[in-house]
Design brief:
single chain; alpha/beta; eight-stranded mixed sheet; 13 helices; TIM Barrel
Length: 437
Amino acid sequence: MKIKYFSIFILAIILFTASKPSAQTAVAPSTKAILFKGGIAHLGNGKVIENSLIGIKDGKIILITDAATARIDGSVFDERITITGKHVYPGIIAPSSTIGLNELDAVRATNDFTEVGYINSHVRSLISYNTDSKIIPTVRTNGILLVQASPRGGLISGSSSIMKLDGWNWEDAVLKSDDGIHLNWPEMNAPKRPRETDQSYNERVKNYNTSISNLTNFFADAKAYSQIAHDEKNIRFEAMKDIIAGEKILYVHTNSLKDIIEVIAFAKKFEIKKYVLVGARDAYLATAILKENNVPVILARVHELPEKMDDDVDLPYKRAAELFKAGVLVCLTNEGDMEAMGTRNLPFQAGTTVAYGLTKEEALMLITSNTAKILGIEDKVGVLEENKHATFFISEGDALDMISNNVVKAFIDGKEIELPNEQLQLYNKYKQKYGLK
């Protein structure tokens, strides 16, 4: 009897879920040539066109120019849309994110970003990416149109892929597959902590030394493996071949100054040509060595508390400006607690840096062109330029300002995507219920 009632209960849940309208639907490609007139175009490279003409066709930008000086044949466009006074931005890119891999933190079955094991260089986040995630529409509402879906956990987590936030499945959504491998650098956190016992401290040192030894041995073996042809394949070492050859990026997640210096020494030892620091909260203390070695930084979230008791209270707000002005290639990530859902605040985190030393256009670069350069997709997205993908959004206000930002249209590869999400639906529902305007 209990089994019967339980089956009826499960069936009811399935029918209810199936009857609910989806918050997102993949849009068919458009063959129309569309001209947008009069918008304030923020190109993403530090430049602004106050009165722009933007033309798109077959998923690409075919025209972007100043309407005040340009003379064009408008007849080549099937549709003309006037957006006078509205702001146009390149699609925001969220690096090192678990969007599409993480749904509800408290429900283990909805989290697919961590694999069992310690060294998982062969694991691919791409095939776990869920285009039906309820989080995706909530971040698209604020102009985030691309994410780097990244694995977590272990010493080496696996490979990430760069995804468009549109598509029926991961095959539709992928922009760049397996763009790099993610390594979590062991943390020493020396010296001995207050009230820490000698036994606990010695155990921590032992674990750290073991992790560094395992990492060193793995890279040495992977490098040797890549130099010899093998009849029998080792999938972990096969995944490292492009890292050793300098064709893909090694993303090293680390924070302390000591660890950052060790990572740079480690990369030199194994001749790793392409690597990026992720998190890197102490990177502002190492600008000279980062610039000397041409090491890009994906900086941890701006909206957080300082790590140390004697840090400036506004340190997280001004790190990005210090790195940017020192000539380090830097972008922003929301990596950390509640990172998937919180990614919708990425443009506002960039906006905070404006109050701490950057201009609005420089802050925009932290979430568009700089991110594209670091991820190796600058030939496709990140800047509003001719021949690049028509991935952009239109806002009635400043996209970096939480109060005025209001995205009214968004396009991915020239396809206008749906912007509603469940939170907006609930907002409108109860606004109507209580007679609010």
